[in-house]
Amino acid sequence: MFRAPVIASALAVSLMSGAFAADAPGVTVTEIKVGGIFPFSGPASSIGQVGKAVMAYVQSINDRGGINGRKINYIAYDDAYSPPKSVEHARRLVESDEVSFIFSELGTPGNSATAKYLMAKKVPTVGIVSGSNKFTDVANYPLTTTSLVSFDTEGRIYAKYLTKALPNAKYAILYQNDDLGKDYVNAFKSILKADFDKKVVAISYEISDPTVDSQIVSLKSSGAEALVIGGTPKFAAQAIRRAAEIGWKPTILLNYPSGSVGATLKPAGLEASTGVISGTMMMDPTDSQWDNNEGMKNFRAFIGKYMPGVDISDNNYLFGYMQGMLLEHLIQQCGNDLSRENIITQARSFRDVALPTALPGILVNTSDKIDMNFTQMRLQRWTGTHWDQFSEVLDGASE
């Protein structure tokens, strides 16, 4: 179990307006309790690094004195990417820890499992780390906002790219057999329409599978010239490595959750990964083009102080850092009204927020109709040593 340190002391503050209202659980004069659920262990533990970075960023906020006089007591638990554990931890956070809201819960299966319970308890789930298209439905998820470009939007971007780059080719899709992977398949169906069945061969894997070697061999035999990977880093790395081992050299498009040098490309082999394309909204911490960028300088300094020794090429740490900045922005924007109603209202009221480590042109905008923090990406290609961004800012409607 991972848990952020409980705040033992806090700053005194002056007069308050709504902090002690009956509808502001988890809030006192000195702190606000926020919950998180991450796969710190299990088959998707590589993306659990996001949670560790969120926790470290919260510590940096508290070291600066907190926000509006309150420190953040961020309580994070490990669900090992297991939905029953996700539900268990959600109940604990709400009923025992009495958090104000859930922030950055990671994983489509876990978020799917806890959504009904959290809505029934009227607990906002802000900045969830899932791109599942269902969570973008504001009417059905009125207390939720997301922090990934939806898998549907990302899949549409990839499908449109391939229809231009390889218009006459067959495409292979390796996808995780859950909402995460299926959204990529459905995105290709929406773009290719009647041509989908003749142009695409799609094979799934289970999160419990030891490898995807057999799937890659089968996909190669289809004659596909492109391979789209819609899954998590462990299996994406296996897929890239296995394709290289059997001499298959398709154009590989790697989904954002697996688009990490440290978590995916290094285990796959940096040389074997050369040419891989992925969409992103973040700078690459290892890319020298950002060496003089103030936002990247601050991130590297943050890692040196709060997470020394971690692999900075693993962009899950940078994503968690950006999540922490969004949490800070949200609480600041709420001012002294930390009721659950205002938390979700403000989470849906971000206006042109330019995070300092987001790629130029990528902005965070939400509204009562758009609950996605990110809706834009740029395509980048791995050169063997760094990512080369080669597209403009794209979204699901881009041609």
Q: What are the SSEs and their pairings?
A:
Elements: E1 31-38, H1 49-63, E2 71-78, H2 83-96, E3 101-103, H3 108-120, E4 125-128, E5 144-146, H4 151-165, E6 171-176, H5 179-192, H6 196-199, E7 200-205, H7 213-221, E8 226-230, H8 233-245, E9 251-254, H9 261-268, E10 277-280, H10 294-306, H11 315-334, H12 340-347, E11 378-382, E12 387-389
Parallel strand pairs: 1-2, 1-3, 3-4, 4-5, 6-7, 6-8, 8-9, 9-10
Antiparallel strand pairs: 10-11, 11-12
Helix pairs in contact: 1-11, 2-3, 4-5, 7-8, 8-9, 11-12
Strand content: 5-15%
Average residue pLDDT: 93
The CATH architecture of the largest domain: 3-Layer(aba) Sandwich
Cα separation of the termini: 45 Å
CATH topology annotation of the largest domain: Rossmann fold
Rg result? 21 Å
CATH superfamily annotation of the largest domain: Response regulator
What is the CATH C level class of the largest domain, in words?
Alpha Beta
Binned, the helix content reads 25-40%
Structural class: alpha/beta
Largest sheet: 7 strands, mixed
Low-pLDDT sequence parts: 1-22
**In which order are the strands of the major sheet placed?**
7-6-8-9-10-11-12
